[in-house]
Design goal:
Layout lengths: L4 E4 L2 E5 L10 E4 L2 H9 L6 H19 L4 H16 L6 H16 L5 H31 L5 E6 L14 H10 L3 E7 L6 H12 L4 E4 L4 H6 L5 E4 L3 E3 L4 E4 L2 H10 L4 E4 L5 E2 L16 H4 E2 L2 E2 L12 E4 L6 E4 L2 E4 L3 H9 L1
Parallel strand pairs: 4-5, 4-7, 5-6, 7-10, 8-11, 10-15
Antiparallel strand pairs: 1-2, 2-3, 8-9, 9-14, 12-13, 15-16
Helix pairs in contact: 1-2, 2-3, 2-4, 2-5, 3-4, 4-5, 5-6
Bound molecules: 5-S-methyl-1-O-phosphono-5-thio-D-ribulose.
The site of 5-S-methyl-1-O-phosphono-5-thio-D-ribulose (MRU) has 17 residues, from helix 2 and strand 9.
């Protein structure tokens, strides 16, 4: 399976997802600043993948700071953490991974810089390894919900490219196929950044999973024709009440699914939950460059000077979600009370 994130020595190699599907090229990152820039520029994307990349970035920061006295080491680490957190605002896995790294460092405060550096590299490695294991658990639980034969609609990219490996929603699809189920996928193109057209179709083709590309505005018609059995998407942040932030266009799919009585599933690791937020209205939504709307592959498609609005994510209310699939199990009809079990045990 393709690796979105690769480590060689103390360098991070990130598959340049901006170039897919036409070019397979890795960007070499030798400092935490390189990684921050790669996250900002979408070389690496997808909530779990940016979390893991940021964890490695902090390990790199520790390498650069290891000869500093403790106060400077921790101040430098905090600066790197703050800058990394500011690269993308919505996916909470980024903040989760950075906070986990900072906590590990703080708990070892008596140690030398060289010792801390080792500890932080080991923790980043642990975050990356755990992500794959977590995705496989999500996939096992999720595959139980997939009938023997299913036409699945998905949005954005939630596969190996969006994680350290295997994927969340696409991991479930992978696992269902491994179980011998007859699965076919409709991939929304996912305007305006085209993660579905460029990345999901590519991943599905690599795995020989039947996939059909559709433009986002075709999804409702497919549902009306009875050609979609279920919808499966990922998440970037889930509030305590089960409201889900995911790639722009997810909410429209959930409304359509309700109207057509089609199950709407969200797959995400516990690290995507933000129990500090009461509901989805508190989730910060990234707004991206208007050029994503005014240009297509470098060519202008809208009048110069046109006013644009380009939110990268939307909020799907918990009431529209059939179930959230996590590594700890499936939470049906998610609500604050039902999600408590994830928080506590
Ligand atoms: O802007 P992106 O490409 O980082 O957005 C990615 C998504 O919205 C995914 O659905 C989400 O991160 C889950 S990935 C397992």
């Amino acid at each position: 399976m393709i690796k979105a994130i690769d480590i060689k020595g103390k360098k991070l190699f990130l598959l340049d997802q901006r170039l897919l599907p036409t070019e397979l090229q890795y960007v070499e990152c030798s400092s935490w600043q390189d990684v921050a820039q790669a996250i900002r520029k979408m070389v690496v994307r997808g909530a779990p993948a940016i979390g893991a990349a940021a964890a490695y970035a902090l390990a790199m920061a520790a390498t650069a700071l290891q000869k500093m006295p403790p106060s400077q080491f921790f101040a430098g680490l905090a600066d790197a953490a703050n800058e990394l957190k500011a690269t993308r605002p919505t996916a909470v896995n980024l903040m989760w991974a950075i906070d986990r790294m900072l906590n590990v460092a703080r708990m070892q405060e008596g140690k030398t810089g060289a010792e801390l550096e080792k500890i932080l590299w080991a923790e980043a490695e642990k975050i990356a390894t755990e992500d794959i294991a977590v995705n496989k658990k999500i996939s096992d639980f999720g595959a139980e919900l997939i009938p023997k034969q299913a036409r699945i609609l998905t949005h954005c990219n939630t596969g190996a490219l969006a994680t350290v490996g295997y994927g969340t929603a696409l991991g479930i699809i992978r696992r269902a196929v491994e179980q011998g189920k007859r699965i076919s996928v409709f991939a929304d193109e996912t305007r305006p950044y085209l993660q579905g057209a460029r990345l999901t179709t590519w991943e599905m083709l690599q795995e020989n999973i039947p996939v059909t590309l559709i433009a986002d505005n075709m999804a409702g018609f497919l549902m009306q024709q009875g050609r979609v059995d279920l919808i499966l998407v990922g998440a970037d942040r889930i509030a305590a009440n089960g409201d889900v932030a995911n790639k722009i266009g997810t909410y429209s799919l959930a409304v359509l699914a309700k109207a057509h009585q089609i199950p709407f599933y969200v797959a995400a690791p516990i690290s995507t939950f933000d129990f500090t937020l009461r509901d989805g209205s508190q989730i910060p939504i990234e707004e991206r460059d208007e050029e994503e709307l005014t240009h297509f592959a470098g060519t202008r498609i809208a009048p110069a000077g046109i006013s644009c609005y380009n939110p990268a994510f939307d909020i799907t209310p918990a009431a529209l979600i059939t179930a959230i699939i996590t590594e700890k199990g499936v939470v049906r009809e998610p609500s604050r009370e039902r999600l408590l079990c994830l928080r506590e045990g």
